[in-house]
Design brief:
about 55% strand, about 140 residues
Length: about 140
């Protein structure tokens, strides 16, 4: 019998790490993960979202759909969208399709924007300017 792949409910929090909890290890789930405590080392992987609360400290590799950071994060992060909110701090390698940086947030590391066709052929060119038909004719000298 064929099974239909289940999709997580977007607002359903499946895992919560409380303010006074510390975790070492790996979390794999399909729903949203909320962290208010400490993740000392490990990996967090979910089809859903990850919320890193204002008092949270996370030292782990992360793979998720959307990651919202209000606390501190250090590691390698792969996501479709990252929101570094006011007061949030991040260190490491961040690979994303979409990135939001609030005023008052801190980022130290490498931000790698991903997506098809987003890398220009030459430095200082926009993806649109690489199409020869789209370039304006050269200006005439007077």
């Amino acid at each position: 019998m064929l099974r239909r792949e289940r999709r997580p409910e977007p607002d359903r929090i499946e895992v919560t790490i409380g303010m006074h909890a510390t975790l070492r290890g790996e979390i794999k789930c399909e729903g949203t993960v909320r962290i208010d405590g400490i993740v000392e080392e490990g990996r967090i992987e979910t089809l859903g979202n990850i919320i890193i609360g204002p008092e949270a400290r996370v030292l782990a590799d992360v793979k998720a759909d959307t990651v919202s950071v209000s606390g501190a994060y250090k590691g390698t992060l792969d996501a479709n969208r990252v929101e570094l909110l006011e007061g949030g701090r991040m260190w490491g390698v961040i690979r994303v399709v979409s990135f939001l940086l609030d005023e008052g947030a801190y980022l130290h590391g490498e931000l790698v924007m991903q997506g098809e066709g987003t890398e220009p052929a030459e430095p200082w060119e926009t993806p649109e300017s690489t199409d020869p038909a789209a370039k304006p004719p050269p200006a005439k000298a007077k």
